[in-house]
Design a protein that fits this description.
Radius of gyration: 18 Å
Order of helices and strands: HHEEEHEHEHHEHEH
Structural class: alpha/beta
Oligomer: single chain
Number of helices: 8
Strand order of the largest sheet: 3-7-6-4-5
CATH class of one domain: Alpha Beta
Largest sheet: 5 strands, parallel
Strand content: 15-25%
Helix content: 25-40%
CATH superfamily of one domain: Rhodanese-like domain
CATH topology of one domain: Oxidized Rhodanese, domain 1
Length: 159
Amino acid sequence: MLRYCLVALRAARSNLSLQTTLHLPPKCTLVGSQRFFNSSSVPTIGIVEYDVVKKLPREPQKLLIDVREPDELTKTGQIPSSINIPLGIVSQELSASNEVFKSKYGREKPQANTEIIFHCMIGKRSLKAAEAAAALGFKNLKNYEGSWTDWAKREGLPK
C-alpha cells in the first residue's frame, strides 16, 4: 500500500491524473483526489431526505449531527434533535470517552452501528464528516444532502 501512496503523492505533485498513473490492487478504490480505502471495509454512506429527518425527534436511537460552526447556527437556527459538532472536531468528539461525550452533548456516545445522520448548510461538509466517522469505524452513516437549505425551505424558515 505504501507504494501506491508514494505514486499518488508523486502524481499529485506533478498534476498527473491518478487514474492513469495508478494500477490499484483488487478491492481498492481511489476516493477524492488522494485517499485510498479498501472498498471491502469502507461503509457506504447513505443519503436521507427531509421526511426521514423530520421524524428524528421520535427516534432517539438515531443521532443527527449538525457540523456547521456555532455562529452559523445562531444566524439560522437548528434542526430539532440535532447536536452541533463542527466539522473540524468531529473526529475528536466521536473518539472521546462515553462520559465526555455525554457531558458535552447530553446524549450517549454513538456505538459503531448507531445510525448517525450528518448535515450542514448544503450537504458537502456533512459528507466529509461522514467520511471521517467511517474512518473511525462507524458503520451506519447517512448524509442529509439537502441539509439546512432544504430543511429551511420545507419548514418555511429563512435560509
